[in-house]
Write a structure and sequence with these properties.
This protein is of the alpha/beta class. The chain has a single domain (about 50-175), classed as Rossmann fold, CATH 3.40.50.2020. The chain is built from five helices and nine strands; from the N terminus they run ββααβαββββαβαβ. The strands form two sheets. Strands 5-6-4-3-7-8-9 form a seven-stranded mixed β-sheet, sandwiched between helices.
Length: about 180
Amino acid sequence: MSVDLKASIRTISDFPQPGIMFRDVTTLMKDAAAFKEAISRLAAHYADKGVEKVAGVEARGFIFGAAVAEKLEAGFVPLRKKGKLPFEAISATYELEYGTDQLEMHIDAVEPGEKVLIIDDLIATGGTAEAAIHLLTKAGAEIIAAAFVIDLPDLNGAKRLHNLGIETMSLVAYDGH
């Protein structure tokens, strides 16, 4: 029996600012059946793609990405915000609504040619995912795809990645912001 993942995701109105409908995956994660279903669906989609590493984007992408990596018998690579990694790192800058931020990765996290799947909990505008792609590509990785629990298609993030030649998939989608 399949779990209704959308029903397990809480929506919080006006967070972090008025007019935003925040999609809270912590309610999915606390539900053992829903969490297992989400991980199983993400992993099954890529089971035959030869994924060698899963790159999870800070912070909720770590949770989903590490679990998917274990299912795929792949290594896990954390993509962190600037200044959080203890070893030498490379970085990629991305745009925020007001300013910029950076993602970093250890220089030895992936080998040139390794097949990498990017995982995050949500794709909105695609800026963070695009930074992850640039970071991994800079290190010589082959990006298999980018997968998300939630897509907000009205914000065109998946389309943005598609225009970069990256396959995307998501488990649920919500209209609006």
